[in-house]
Amino acid sequence: MSSLCLKFASYNIHKGVGLDRRRDPDRILSILREIDADVIALQEADRRFGSREAVIPRQSLDEHSPWQAAAPGMRPLSMGWHGNVLLVRREIEILDVRAVALPTLEPRGAVCADLASEGRRFRVVGMHLDLSGLRRRHQVRAVCDHVAEGEAAPVVIMGDLNEWSLRGGALAEFDPHLTVLSPGRSFPARRPLAELDRIVVSQEWGVGDTGVHHSPLSAVGSDHLPVFASLTL
């Protein structure tokens, strides 16, 4: 069987509000097209209050992007679960999508999807962890327990981990067979200091290029910069 090569990315889009204080969904879509990843985990993809309406209108996603949303459909106007959604290139099959409840004091959550491409099945989680260090550790454990359930599959976990430590803290809670990739400093976007956005992979994946997507648009599109990793199964 030939190798499956995919590009994964994670981006906290700050509800579409850029450093210029404008909410601009079209700008976010333009940044996503620049990244051109096969699977993208978005955080803060829904507005916070009221009906939690999606930042990127579903029609815009359908008509002006190559992706479909893998979301559990918990709220009719939302795209994700507590702002988390996975965007998946349309050629990739979505087999199952689940909301993952996280132990938290804040409105946090994760989305887990089983996907298939070229006959290869794999599992992806998008998440946004708590500001509290203790809660982050509990949340990492909850996500690891969830991905271990059911049929075994290669795993990619990604999102805004809110972890300032380079190796300790919540990062130490990932299962031993998982590798935490640090694509680079992604926060704050204007002058990146912290590696808050991470991609975590199981041992089945070969790791190629990783990095932070820094362009004129991404420099103002959100308070975070997107991170990416090219992986081979």
Kindly report the CATH topology.
Deoxyribonuclease I, Chain A
How much helix is in the residues?
A: 10-25%
How big a fraction of the residues is strand? 25-35%
Q: Provide the gyration radius in Å.
A: 16 Å
Q: How would you classify the helix and strand content by structural class?
A: alpha+beta
User: Which CATH class applies here?
Assistant: Alpha Beta
Query: With helices defined by DSSP (H or I, 4 residues minimum), what is the helix count?
Result: 4
**Mass-distribution shape:** globular
Number of E-type strands: 12
- The rounded distance between the terminal residues' Cα atoms is 10 Å
What does this structure look like?
There is one protein chain. This protein is an alpha+beta fold and about 230 residues long. The protein has a single domain, classed as Endonuclease/exonuclease/phosphatase (Deoxyribonuclease I, Chain A). The chain contains four helices and twelve strands; from the N terminus they run βαβαβββββαββββαβ. A six-stranded mixed sheet has the order 3-4-2-1-12-11, with no helix packed on it. A six-stranded mixed sheet has the order 5-6-7-8-10-9. Helix 1 links the parallel strand 1 (about 5-10) and strand 2. It starts with a strand and ends with a strand.
